Amino acid sequence: MSLEQEIEKRKTFGIISHPDAGKTTLTEKLLLFGGAIQTAGAVKNNKIKKSAASDFMDIERQRGISVATSVMAFHYKDKLINLLDTPGHRDFAEDTYRTLTAVDSVILVIDCVKGVEAQTERLMEVCRMRDTPVIVYINKMDLEGRDAFDLLDELEEKLSINVRPMSWPIGIGRTFQGVYKIYDKSLNLFEGDKTKIAETKVSIDGLEDKKLIEQLGEEAAEELRTEVELVEGVYDPLSVEEYRAGKVAPVFFGSAVNNFGIQEMLDKFIEIAPSPRPRHTNTREVFPTEPKFTGFIFKIHANIDPRHRDRIAFLRVCSGTFERNTFYRHIRLEKKFKFPNPAAFLAQSKSVIDLAYPGDVIGLYDTGNFKIGDTLTEGEKMMFQGIPSFSPEMFKEVINKDPMKSKQLEKGVRQLTDEGVAQLFVMPIGSRKIIGTVGELQFEVIKYRLENEYGAKCDFQAKNYFKACWITSDNAEKKAEFIRIKNQEILKDKDNNDVYLAPSEFILNMERQNYPEIEFHFTSEFKTQST
Ligand code: G4P
């Protein structure tokens, strides 16, 4: 098969949702449809428990297991689908943001009872930064959820994206009878049978067909006719181009736990979702069809066994063909590496591969050479972009509890933050270290791992910062002045960028007024060339 055909065949995507909306269930059902797993429950085992009581060991153990399911490749029809797993736990949101840099599209799951929830909004912001195409799956239609029109309005309003319903629900909750597929004018009937995989399709000749009443009853048929008329009046037909540009999101209604509405979405997904797309670097755009291999690291997974401190770095292939045992250039380190055992992930098993193509994700065994954002090429100097770091929400200072082990602490903190467990900010004077995370859990994980893997002991002292702001300015003098005046709150991130830790929103707004020449950003690109 030619490189072009390999690329065309691949669809690399991720599923995002607010916890509990049904991401794990949908993942599992997609794998069932793809024939990659035979029984339900296989993916569930891997899920990080959401109860506040789940302790970090449990989570680490589960994260360990999840190496195998970080990428789930499966075949569906003539396509090869790479599904990148994103942790559902809110405290690992940063992991999810980074995984989104390695996909070409996403499926967003919404709970029809709850509508758009907080984490959905944040995840969509990340998708919008890169114009990632989005398909929406409104789940749990077997429950008494919200009105479909209201849900669509809320999606448009809260997620700032135009929507296009592809199917329309017939009833909801107890009265849910299935969906009418707007694009091919057929019915997909809901039978509420969890054991059944195939969908029950009924072809009808438009909404006036007598079969409609036979199937749904007079009242539901009439309601459907009125609603679809309204839908067709309000929403234009889907433009695939606009979807691929991240401007409109096709919407499906279903019930994942009942295998409903999944196959029709999957069929549409393979038809419209983009194959691997060109990607930006700091020097030029890289096209997947270029013969020379390029790729970047978007995730690093540590081995939780302290006796083996190896890690797996996940690399997304962006162009050309990756070959096993071939030397590639690690751009940041300016060194050549070859990989004798690159791993591919088919469904839930891991195997060594010889070749990988654009869109594929492979696991590279690493002894500490990789950082998130690192680029590998056949020699060309470039760094992939669009792998930003986001302002953490919690900040704590690292306090060394064992002065004899400061070297180990230093090394541990560096390595763990390189892995992306948390972000590290260092004060230029005195080297005080502040760690930023999205949730409390990471602090526990760091403390535990520092002790167990590096033999270092630390405590954390909470710091009341509002946000980390990466500061830039065209006016070097003003920036230098700001840094001088605010020296207690200006730290370096791990790529040596200047970051202002704003004590409060009020003070940040004040500084914005005092220093109109300075820009305060809540996100940053990882500029891995500077170390
Ligand atoms: P998440 O990964 O997004 O956090 O969600 P997950 O799939 O775990 O689903 C959350 C809960 O919602 C699960 O119930 C799941 O069974 C249920 N669920 C998923 N899809 C549907 C659906 O279409 N209809 C209904 N009624 N429920 C659905 P749970 O009680 O938390 O777990 P479990 O005991 O069922 O495994």
How does this structure look, described?
- The chain has 531 residues and is an alpha+beta fold.
- The protein folds into three domains: 3-272, Rossmann fold (3-Layer(aba) Sandwich); 279-377, Elongation Factor Tu (Ef-tu), domain 3 (Beta Barrel); 394-521, Alpha-Beta Plaits (2-Layer Sandwich).
- It is built from 14 helices and 33 strands.
- Strands 2-3-1-4-5-11-6 form a seven-stranded mixed sheet, sandwiched between helices. A six-stranded antiparallel sheet has the order 18-17-23-14-15-22, covered by helices on one side. A four-stranded antiparallel sheet has the order 7-8-9-10, covered by helices on one side.
- Strand 19 (343-346) and strand 20 form a beta hairpin.
- It is globular, with a radius of gyration of 25 Å.
- The model is unreliable at 48-56 and 526-531 (pLDDT under 50).
- Bound molecules: guanosine-5',3'-tetraphosphate.
Residues in β-strands, percent: 25-35%
Share of helical residues? 25-40%
Query: Regarding quaternary structure, how should these chains be classified?
Result: single chain
Give the end-to-end Cα distance, rounded to a whole number of Å.
40 Å
Q: What is the averaged pLDDT score?
A: 87
Total of DSSP H or I helical runs spanning 4+ residues: 14
* Bound chemical compounds: guanosine-5',3'-tetraphosphate
| Rg over C-alpha atoms, rounded to the nearest angstrom | 25 Å
CATH C-level class of the largest domain is Alpha Beta
Could you name the ranges where pLDDT drops below 50 across 5 or more consecutive residues?
48-56, 526-531
Strand arrangement, largest sheet? Answer: 2-3-1-4-5-11-6
Instruction: Find the structural class using helix and strand composition.
Output: alpha+beta
